Amino acid sequence: MGAENKTDEEKQNGDGTLFDLNDYTIIKEGDAEILMHAKNEVFYNKTQVNNRDMSVAVLRTFISQRKQEHEAMLTRRRTKAGNKVPDAKAEIPDDSGQHNGESNDGSEVLEDASHNESCSKPEEETKNLRGKGREELKPPRVLEALSASGLRALRYAREVEGISQVVALDNDKASVEACRRNIKFNGSVACSKVESHLADARVYMLTHPKEFDVVDLDPYGAPSVFLDSAVQSVADGGMLMCTATDMAVLCGGNGEVCYSKYGSYPLRGKYCHEMALRILLASIESHANRYKRYIVPVLSVQMDFYVRVFVRIYTSASDMKSTPLKLSYVYQCTGCDSFHLQPVGRTVSKNNSVRYLPGFGPAVSQECSDCGKKFNMGGPIWSAPIHDQEWVAAILADVKSMKDRYPAYERISAVLTTVSEELPDIPLFLSLHNLCATLKCTSPSAVIFRSAVINAGYRISGTHVNPLGLKTDAPMDVIWDIMRCWIKNHPVKAQPSDQAGSVILAKEPVLQANFSRAVASLSKAQAKKVARFLPNPERHWGPKLRAGRQITSKHVSLLGPKALNGINNHENGDGSNHEDVEEPAAKQ
Description:
It catalyses: guanosine(26) in tRNA + 2 S-adenosyl-L-methionine = N(2)-dimethylguanosine(26) in tRNA + 2 S-adenosyl-L-homocysteine + 2 H(+). The chain has 21 helices and 19 strands. It has helices spanning 49-83, 115-120, 122-130, 151-159, 173-185, 188-193, 201-206, 224-233, 247-250, 255-262, 272-289, 389-401, 409-420, 432-439, 446-455, 476-489, 500-505, 524-527, 556-559, 561-572, 578-587, and strands spanning 10-12, 18-20, 24-29, 32-37, 141-144, 165-170, 194-198, 212-217, 234-244, 293-303, 306-315, 327-333, 339-343, 345-350, 353-358, 375-382, 430-431, 460-461, 469-472.
C-alpha cells in the first residue's frame, strides 16, 4: 500500500497537500482501502458491498466473454478469407457488419493482392481483414460516472485483471479530492489505472461517445437523467451497469413521477419489484433506440433497496426494429391477482421478408373473466428475458471459484443461484399467498401447488425477487382451476357474493388438478437445501444519508436512541470523538 511509506501522523492528498490521518477511518472492502472523514462529506454506504461485489463478478465475466467473442470473430474472418484464396483477384469481403452483436464500425478492409503472401503470412492477412490496429483486442476502459469516494473504481482496478483504465467522475469537489486521496492511498496499481476528474457526468459521457467498454451508473436516486448520455458513451458490444434506488417511484408509489422519469406507468402488484426492473430496462432501450442502438440484458437483479441491471449495447438499425416485440403493456385486475400482457408489436413473415406491425388487441375485455372487476393498465415494460442464463452460470461459477475475493459472497451467490433457476421467458410472477387471500382459504404448500401446475403440463419456478413468488406459463384460468380443486378438499366459509373470491369459486373447475408430488416440484438448490434468501447482516441495512447531511433527533422516533448512536458511531468510525456524535442531535 502506498500509505506504508508515509508517517502515521501526516499523509498527502492527491494534489500534494498534507492531511492528518487521525481525522480519518480506514475502510477496507475487497482489495481496496479508502479513507473516510469523521464528517459525512463524501457518500459511502456499507450496504452497497453486495452491489459492488456483483459488479466485480459481472465485469470479470464480461472481460472473459469479450475475449472469446473476439477470438471467434477472428476465426470466422480467417475462414472466409481462406474460402476466397483460389481467386487471386477477388477482394476480401467486409465482414465487419453486425453479427451476433458485433456492429459495423467502418474499419478498413484491404485487398489481398498476393495469393502466396496471404498463405505464408497469416498475421498480415488478419491485419488486412480487420483494418489498421484491429488485429489485437485492446484492454477495456471503464467509466464510473458517479464515483464519490472512488471505492468502486479502486476495486475494479485492483481486483479485475485486464482493465487498462478506470475513469472516476464526480461533480462535487470534496468527492474528487477524497477520490484522489484514496487513489494515492492504494498505491502504484491504483495510481497507474485510476484517474479522477471533476466533471458533470452527463457532459463528459456526451463528449466521449463510444469510448468506454464499461459504463457504471450508481446514482443516489434515479438514473434517468444520465441514461441518454450513458448509452452513447458505451462502445459497441460494451456494457452498461445501472442502479436505481428510487424504488417508491418505480414500484407504484407515485406512478405519474415514474412515467415522467422512465416513460412507463407502474402497477402496485406483488410483482412490483420485478416490474421496476423491467421499467428500467425499457427506459434504457428507449434511450438507446434514438441512436440506432439496442440492449441485450445479461443480468438484472433486485437486492436490498434497489434494482441493478447489466446490459450490453449494440448498434444496428435493422435489429433495433425488433424493440416493439420486446415491450408489453400490463393489465392488472383490481379484484383478483389475474394479469395479462399486451405486446406492443408483432411481425408477419412473407416470402423471406419480415413486416413489423402493431400488436393485436385488446388482450382483455373491459371486465375480468375470472372475477368480473375492472383492469388497471401499466407499462410499457420490458417483457423479453431479463437474464442470459449462460452468463449467469458463468458468473456464478466464477464467484464460487473465488469466494475469498468477495466480501458479500454468501449474499451474491444466493441471488445468482436463485436467478439461475428462474424461467427466463416468463415476465412477472404470482404470489401464492395473494391467491389464497383473494379466496380466503388456507394456503397449499409451495411444493403441492408447483406439483399441480407441473402435472397440468406447464412450467413453474421461483423468482429471486420474492421468496413467495412463482413464475409460470400456465394461464390464469388454469391457476384458478387448481385453487378451486384445492378448496373442494379444504372448504372455506361463505363470503359475500360480490367479492372477487366468491365470483371465482362460483364457477366449476374445467381442469381437474392433480396434487400428487411431481419430481420437479423442488428446484436443485431447494433439493440440496442451498440458502437462497438470506437475512440482512445487521440492523438498519439500507439507504444512508446523502453526503453532507447529519443524523438528527428526528430520527430517534424511528430508530430509537441506541440505534441512533450506533449509526452515528458507524458513520464516524470507532476511533472518532463520540461527543461530536451527540452534538448534531442536541442542536435540533
